[in-house]
Amino acid sequence: MRRYLSSVAAIIQPSKLASILVIWSITLLYVLFQGGKTAFMLFIMVSVLIAYLIAGGLGGVRRAKGTRSLYSEQDKGDLLSAGGHLRVKLKVTIPGILPLPYVVVREVLKRHNGESWVFEESVIPSLRGIGELKFQTPALERGTYTFTNTDIISQDIFGLVEHKGTFLSEGQFQVLPRAIYVPRWQLYERKSRLSGPQTSVVQSRRETTQINGVRDYVYGDRLTRIHWNATAKTGSWKSKEFEHESIPKTILVLDGSTSAYMNTNQFELAVSVTASLLGFGIRERIGIGLCCLDKTTKVFAPVEGAAERQKMIQYLIDLNAEGRGPLISRLEKGYRMFPKGSYFVLISPQRGQPVLDALRWADSRGMTASHIHVRNSAEINSGNDWIDVLRSRGITGYGISSLQELPSVLGGEG
How far apart are CA 287 and CA 302, in angstroms? Predict the structure, then answer.
């Protein structure tokens, strides 16, 4: 008897188990001392109800399982851009022969930085114990997201017994940083007063006679550009891709110092600026590399390939601004991968002597330095003074307070 009660107590909370035993004891005493059909029927009804509630905990939700499916408006359900929503469908299977009027499903979604969201909804299972939960996440920001254990809760209408089951249905996805289309960058324009002596016009880069690959046909391509073999194999029009004249490589340096950013939004703006410039490099076939001065110094060498550029964007997903120490000491850890004669673009909210030292460090190693100052909303006016200081020293400077400003500021319109 004691063993049976201990197993039941493991299923039901001790306080609620005591309440059930009290109710059952009262009906039993009512039968023993009062007698009669009414007392006996009441005792049988309470006994059957208690047996049903306890039996539901022996199987049912405690052995529940589920499978999760992720959907988005984009092509890849496990990879979407910041600001997007994700639709989730969870199919739950509850074994057992006893029907359940409803169950409560609780989902927990965690972000890589520790933030979490709880989604809770009631589901009515079918006679076979199969239920389906559908919901949509709020607008998500950059990061890696993971669904943790799913809780299934079953409770009677009186609140006497609550059974809880837990299962893990793996579900992980990533949200890319926000990015904006940058049509032109004044840094690369010939005869620009903001550019160095090695610049050239991106839009006027002439093609060489060296074939670099095959691309989709674009309306207006001449017949001499059409790649007939690729067109015949794929069944769609393909054109030859030629190599372009080389221009200086570029290295983007993202400042991930903890003390540099006043809030999370400012750091997200810096990451979004970096992602937007990487996208510009892909479209314009510019060799752009990436250096992240975060908890560790990570350097990606400048390349023109889209695959390598995608690795850089993937690395931006989980950054948390955990860097410490002077900029120069962290730059020294990866200086061997900084090409001589390249553009050194520092993306940072810092200003003053630390930034000047970093830009002077780049100049001493044969690079053309510039600074994209990521401003906080409270320093929009004072930030212009810093840009004037940079230009008085012959250094290219841009002030960015929102991502929407980036195209006009880089194009020389702001």
Answer: 5
**Strand positions, DSSP E, 99-245:** 103-111, 116-123, 130-136, 143-147, 150-155, 162-167, 172-176, 207-216, 238-244
Of 400, 397, 399, 404, which is closest to residue 187 (Cα–Cα)? Answer: 397
Q: In this predicted model, what pLDDT tens digit does every residue of 301-339 receive, in sequence order?
A: 888 777 888 889 999 998 888 888 889 999 988 888 888
- Residue 91's Cβ-count burial label (10 Å; 0-12, 13-18, 19+) is middle
Distance CA 290, CA 303 (A): 10
Of 247, 244, 212, nearest in space to 227 by CA:
212
Q: Average pLDDT for residues 173-185, to the nearest whole number?
A: 90
Mean pLDDT comparison of 38-52, 302-316, 354-368, highest-scoring range = 354-368
Structure tokens that stand for 148 in this block: 């943790």
- CA angle (397, 179, 248) in 5-degree steps: 50
Which uninterrupted H or E stretch holds 255?
strand 250-255
Q: Work out whether strand 250-255 and strand 343-348 pair parallel, antiparallel, or are unpaired.
A: parallel
